[in-house]
Structure formats: structure tokens, C-alpha cells
From TrEMBL:
The protein's name in its UniProt record: Cupin domain-containing protein
Cross-referenced InterPro entries: Cupin_2 (IPR013096), RmlC-like_jellyroll (IPR014710), RmlC_Cupin_sf (IPR011051)
Superkingdom as given in the UniProt entry: Bacteria
Residue ranges constituting the Cupin type-2 domain according to the UniProt record: 55-108
UniProt xrefs under Pfam families: Cupin_2
Native source organism of the sequence: Piscinibacter gummiphilus
């Protein structure tokens, strides 16, 4: 019996190809599309990995917030995004990797039309908490 319980908790093998999952608008932000990579199911909720891409032009961005998560990275695949991490503006371009330490207050306020990034977070059911920002946010760049 114990073997079956331990086996049920083990991380499973997962292989998701581009056509296996669809882009969906059912994510944290309605101006992005999300594509699940099967990691949350394979890890029994320990980790989530999804692709995120721009769906609408930036108007107000994400607002100031923080995540209740143990681990979070963003790897920019295409385009760029401008974040505020505390009172520091950070441009994240294709090829860049950002480790967002637990609880860091941030704001994604601008991004290119072709922006696409991989986000990996633990746990999969992390919480997002809106917070007061430490400073003003620069204006976004309108799409042409």
C-alpha cells in the first residue's frame, strides 16, 4: 500500500509537443494567451510551466503585485517586456532569464507585439497578491 502512495506522488514523465496543447485566454491576465506544458500534472502541482504571449496591446499592464511562490523564472523567447522590480526598471529581451525571488514586488507594464516567454513557478497553484507600488511606472509603448 505504501508503495502505491509513494508512486502516486512521484513526478511523472511528460512530453508536450506544440500541437498537443492550445493557446488559451484562461490565465492570470486577459491580455495574454497561455499554453500549458503539462508540467503541473506531471509534478502533481509542485511546478507549473507555461508559455505566455501577448494577445492585446499594453494599456495598463499587470499592476503592482507579488506572488506567493517558492520559485519563479521567466525566460524571454521572443520580443521584449519592460518590468518594474521594486523601483528599478528592467528590460527583458529575447534570450534573457529572470529569477523573480519569492515575494518581489513587480509590474509588467510594457511589451512588444511578438512577446513570448516561458514561465516556471513552484508551486503550480501560486497566489498573486495586488499591492501598493513603491514608485510611478513609466508609460507603455503604443503598438503601431
Amino acid at each position: 500500500m505504501l508503495d502505491k502512495v509513494l508512486e502516486a506522488r512521484q513526478t511523472q514523465f511528460s512530453h508536450v509537443k506544440p500541437g498537443d496543447t492550445e493557446w488559451r485566454g484562461e490565465g492570470l491576465r486577459d491580455f495574454f494567451l497561455y499554453r500549458d506544458l503539462g508540467v503541473a500534472e506531471a509534478t502533481h502541482g509542485k511546478v507549473i510551466a507555461h508559455l505566455v504571449k501577448a494577445n492585446m496591446a499594453p494599456e495598463k499592464g499587470t499592476g503592482w503585485h507579488r506572488h506567493e511562490a517558492e520559485f519563479q523564472i521567466v525566460i524571454m523567447i521572443k520580443g521584449w517586456a519592460r518590468f518594474m522590480y521594486g523601483n528599478k526598471e528592467t528590460l527583458v529581451s529575447a534570450g534573457d532569464c529572470v529569477h523573480q525571488r519569492p515575494g518581489i514586488v513587480h509590474y509588467l507594464f510594457d511589451y512588444s507585439p511578438d512577446m513570448e516567454y516561458l514561465e516556471i513557478v513552484s508551486p503550480a497553484d501560486f497566489k498573486t497578491i495586488d499591492v501598493e507600488g513603491p514608485c510611478e511606472v513609466p508609460p507603455f509603448t503604443p503598438w503601431k
